[in-house]
C-alpha cells in the first residue's frame, strides 16, 4: 500500500514510538486479551486434531462481520506504520483489510494449551514493514468435543486478540472487548441459526477513507509532560556514569531474577495462568471494604507475601543462580513497577472508552524486615507482617504519591527518541550496564473489572448466544524492565491473572511456586481474618 497524504493519520507520539522501537529490536512485543466463550450446541465442535472447514466457516460467518463493525468503531484497529526508518514514523489508515490474513484457528483443550498459544503469540513479532495489514491479529481456539464432557470448565471456544503496544495499553483491552462484544451480540441477533447460515463468506472489508471517530491523540498532547532536567541528570548519572561496583552496592539485596537479560540472545516469553473462584473473589471484595482497602492492594500484598518465600528465600538457598545475581545476595528487597492509568489526569479528562497508550510507571520498593528471632525452627524465623496494615499503607502510598514521578519518567522519552539509532544504542548500553539487565523485580499491570455487555436489541438470541466464561489479560515479557510481569483481569466476579517471564532468566519452578503462592495467599485471606508468612509454608 502506498503512503500518501490521503491516508496519513498522524506521526507517532513519543510513547508510541518507544514501543515501536523496542518491538523492532526484540525487547518487548505485544499485549493480548483472551475471551473464553461457551458457544451454543448448534455449532458442532471438532472431534479430531484438526478443525474442519465447515466448522471454521460457521464461526467466521459471525466473526468476520463482528470484526468489521468493531474496526469501524475503533480507528486504532485500522492503522499500520509507515516511514519507520525516518525521524518521523507515521500511522497510516488502511483502506482495506483482508481478515483471512490475520485470523487463524487452533485446537485448545485446557489452560496448558492456552498458555502455549499465548507464549507463541507473545514471542511473535508483527510484520511492521507490511503496511497492508493492521497492528493486531486474532486467534480462534476451539475445544475438541469429547473433552467437554470430561472437563468442568464451561468454555469451549476462545477469541484471542493480540495487538502492538503502540496502538493500545492494558486499559484499551476494555475498549476492544466492549466494541467487539457489542458487535458480536448484534450479529448473533441477525443470525439466529448458525447451522442454517449460508451467507457468503467475505474476508475482505473496505473501509472509508476517513473514520467518523477521531483517532487517539498522543499522550504528550493530553498530559502536561515537562522537561525533567534534574530527573534526567540523575538517571544519566546512575545509568552511564556510576561504576558498576557502586550500582551493585546500591542494589544489594534486590531480587532481580536469576540470570542477567543480556546473557540471552533471544527474548522468549513463558506464560503461566492462575485464577480464584467466584466465591473467593466475592469474599475478598467484602474483606477489602471491611478493612478499608482495595482488591489491587490485597493482590499486591499477597504478591509480597508469596515473593518472600518463593523469590527471596528460595533464591537465597539457590546455588544455581548466576554469579551476577549472587553478588546482590542475600536478598531482602522487592522493587515493584506498578502501571498507572493516566486517563484521569489528562486535560480534558479522557473517558475509559478511549483506546491508545495513556500509561506510565510508579515504582515501589519494599525491604522485608528481619525476623524477630533466629530460632532454628523455620516457623519461628519469619518476619511478623501485618497483612491488612500493609494493604492499607500500599493503597495510601499509591494515592499520596500522585503521578509527578510517573510524568517525569515519561518526559525522558521526549528527549531520547529524536534519533532512533542513538536511542537503540542508549537502550543497549543501559541494559548491559545494569547488574541484571533490568531494574525491577515484578511489574503489575492491573486493568480492573470488565462489565458484562447486555443486548439491547430486539429478538431472542438466547439459543444462539455466546456466553463469556472468563477473560485473560497477558503480554510479552519485558526483558529490559522486570523479572516477572503480572497481568490481572476480573469479569463477573471471576479473577484471573497471568505471569510472564523471559525463559531461562528465572527458574521455571520458582515462578510456578510464586504464582501458586499468590493464589494460596488470596484463598487464605478470603477465608480468614488475617494471614501470616507462616500460613503460606
From TrEMBL:
Keywords: Transferase. InterPro entries: Alcohol_O-acetyltransferase (IPR052058), Atf2/Sli1-like (IPR010828). The keyword Ubl conjugation does not apply. One of its GO terms (molecular function) is N-acetyltransferase activity. PANTHER family: ALCOHOL O-ACETYLTRANSFERASE 1-RELATED. This is Alcohol acetyltransferase. It comes from Glomus cerebriforme. The lineage of its organism: Eukaryota, Fungi, Fungi incertae sedis, Mucoromycota, Glomeromycotina.
Amino acid at each position: 500500500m502506498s503512503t500518501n497524504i490521503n491516508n496519513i493519520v498522524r506521526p507517532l507520539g513519543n510513547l508510541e514510538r518507544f514501543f515501536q522501537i523496542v518491538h523492532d529490536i526484540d525487547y518487548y512485543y505485544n499485549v493480548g486479551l483472551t475471551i473464553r466463550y461457551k458457544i451454543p450446541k448448534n455449532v458442532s465442535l471438532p472431534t479430531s486434531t484438526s478443525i474442519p472447514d465447515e466448522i471454521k466457516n460457521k464461526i467466521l460467518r459471525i466473526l468476520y462481520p463482528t470484526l468489521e463493525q468493531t474496526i469501524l468503531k475503533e480507528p486504532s484497529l485500522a492503522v499500520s506504520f509507515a516511514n519507520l526508518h525516518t525521524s518521523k514514523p507515521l500511522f497510516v489508515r488502511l483502506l482495506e483489510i483482508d481478515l483471512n490474513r490475520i485470523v487463524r484457528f487452533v485446537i485448545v483443550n485446557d489452560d496448558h494449551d492456552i498458555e502455549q498459544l499465548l507464549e507463541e503469540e507473545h514471542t511473535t513479532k508483527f510484520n511492521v514493514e507490511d503496511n497492508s495489514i493492521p497492528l493486531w491479529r486474532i486467534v480462534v481456539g476451539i475445544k475438541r468435543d469429547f473433552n467437554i464432557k470430561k472437563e468442568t470448565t464451561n468454555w469451549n471456544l476462545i477469541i484471542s486478540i493480540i495487538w502492538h503496544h503502540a496502538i493500545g495499553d492494558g486499559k484499551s483491552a476494555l475498549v476492544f472487548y466492549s466494541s467487539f462484544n457489542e458487535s458480536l451480540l448484534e450479529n448473533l441477533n441477525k443470525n439466529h441459526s448458525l447451522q442454517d447460515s449460508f451467507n457468503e463468506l467475505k474476508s475482505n472489508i473496505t473501509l472509508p477513507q476517513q473514520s467518523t471517530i477521531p483517532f487517539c491523540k498522543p499522550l504528550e498532547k493530553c498530559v502536561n509532560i515537562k522537561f525533567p532536567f534534574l530527573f534526567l541528570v540523575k538517571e544519566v548519572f546512575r545509568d552511564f556514569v556510576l561504576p558498576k561496583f557502586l550500582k551493585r552496592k546500591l542494589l544489594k539485596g534486590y531480587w532481580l531474577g536469576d540470570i542477567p537479560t543480556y546473557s540471552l540472545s533471544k527474548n522468549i516469553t513463558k506464560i503461566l495462568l492462575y485464577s480464584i473462584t467466584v466465591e473467593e473473589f466475592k469474599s475478598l471484595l467484602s474483606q477489602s471494604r471491611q478493612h478499608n482497602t482495595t482488591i489491587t492492594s490485597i493482590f499486591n500484598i499477597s504478591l509480597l507475601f508469596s515473593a518472600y518465600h518463593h523469590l527471596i528465600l528460595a533464591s537465597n538457598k539457590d546455588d544455581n543462580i548466576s554469579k551476577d545475581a549472587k553478588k546482590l545476595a542475600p536478598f531482602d528487597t522487592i522493587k515493584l513497577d506498578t502501571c498507572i492509568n493516566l486517563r484521569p489526569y489528562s486535560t480534558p479528562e479522557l473517558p475509559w472508552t478511549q483506546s491508545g497508550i495513556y500509561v506510565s510507571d510508579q515504582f515501589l520498593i519494599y525491604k522485608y524486615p528481619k525476623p524477630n528471632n533466629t530460632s532454628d525452627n523455620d516457623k519461628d524465623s519469619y518476619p511478623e507482617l501485618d497483612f491488612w496494615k500493609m494493604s492499607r499503607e500500599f493503597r495510601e502510598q499509591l494515592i499520596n504519591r500522585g503521578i509527578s514521578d510517573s510524568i517525569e519518567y515519561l518526559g525522558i522519552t521526549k528527549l531520547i527518541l529524536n534519533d532512533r539509532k542513538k536511542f537503540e544504542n542508549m537502550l543497549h548500553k543501559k541494559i548491559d550496564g545494569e547488574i541484571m539487565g533490568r531494574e525491577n523485580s515484578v511489574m503489575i499491570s492491573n486493568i480492573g473489572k470488565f462489565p458484562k455487555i447486555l443486548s439491547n436489541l430486539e429478538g431472542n438470541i438466547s439459543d444462539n448466544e455466546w456466553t463469556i466464561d472468563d477473560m485473560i489479560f497477558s503480554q510479552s515479557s519485558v526483558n529490559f524492565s522486570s523479572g516477572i510481569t503480572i497481568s490481572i483481569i476480573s469479569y463477573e466476579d471471576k479473577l484471573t491473572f497471568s505471569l510472564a517471564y523471559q525463559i531461562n532468566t528465572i527458574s521455571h519452578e520458582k515462578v510456578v511456586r510464586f504464582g501458586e503462592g499468590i493464589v494460596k495467599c488470596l484463598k487464605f485471606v478470603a477465608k480468614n481474618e488475617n494471614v501470616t508468612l507462616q500460613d503460606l509454608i
